[in-house]
Amino acid sequence: MIRRLRTLVATAVAVASAAVAAPHVLPLGSAAASTQASVNWDWGRIAEVGDWERGESSTGWGTWADGSGRVDIYYGQLAVDSGPAAFNKTATGDVVTWKAGTGRSRGRWEFRVKAQQWAAAKAYPMRLELVPANTAPGSCGGVTVTLARWTGFGSSTTFGIRRGADRWTKGLSLNNANTFHTFGFELRDTTMTWFVDGQPRARLTSAQAPTAFPTTGLVPRMVLDGTPGTAMTHTRLAADWIRYFTLDRAGRTVPATAAPTRSAAVSGVC
């Protein structure tokens, strides 16, 4: 009995140690699987991180608003807030923040975000995206990679890429009501893959869409897209963190998933 007990204890310790040392080896789909693609697929060391939990400022991020909104740090999160200060008042206009710099043309990005709303009016469309460096705040630029786009607390979340007059999109049902979700994107020379809560949701290859692949440096951007001259619901889209990983680490093999659907781009919509 004592020998058996020692064996069980040793086994439990070994399993726990393995989980701590290498969480990416846990079976996907299990209760222990991470909601982060970077963990599940072993992206390796973080190369760039936006993390505001220790009093960091929004220095290094561009800010723009044409109504009642602002960009600020709330409870350790970088947020685009359509403000006013009173939560029971409606809001107006767009709010945008983006990372300054030349950007990255290849690599892996991951956002952990949630949205909150106050005062019922017209719901804001919200976007998490990658755009070419120096793209104007209200512009889609030559190419826009959408990691997530949804409106209000609606369950329909879309992601994909737009380049010129073409776009490739895919959607899924997701609860966005004051709930954290993690959205990831991997861009290689011949494949691009979208992740939601740690799992691959779509993949596009250069053979399927050779013209879709970006060729310039991309930077993260967060957007509240207001309707001009319309009272909007006070909304806050906040990032707990935003991370970038290089492709230096091969990582685990990501299974192939369905490609986004190609269609004509809607004018003025990234």
Shape: globular
* SSE pattern: HHEEEEEEEEEEEEEEEE
Radius of gyration: 20 Å
Q: Assign the CATH topology.
A: Jelly Rolls
Q: Judging by the overall fold, what is the CATH architecture? A: Sandwich
- Which bin fits the share of residues in helices? under 10%
The chain-level structural class is: mainly beta
Work out the number of β strands: 16
Measured between the Cα atoms of the first and last residue, the distance is 66 Å
Total domain count: 1
Describe the fold and architecture.
By secondary structure, the protein is mainly beta. It has a single domain, classed as Sandwich (Jelly Rolls), CATH 2.60.120.200. 9% of the residues lie in helices and 41% in strands. Strands 1, 3, 4, 6, 11, 12, 13 and 15 form an eight-stranded antiparallel beta sheet that branches. The chain has an eight-stranded antiparallel beta sheet with strand order 2-5-14-7-8-9-10-16, with no helix packed on it. Strand 8 (143-151) and strand 9 form a beta hairpin. It starts with a helix and ends in a 6-residue tail after the last strand. The model is unreliable at 1-32 (pLDDT under 50).
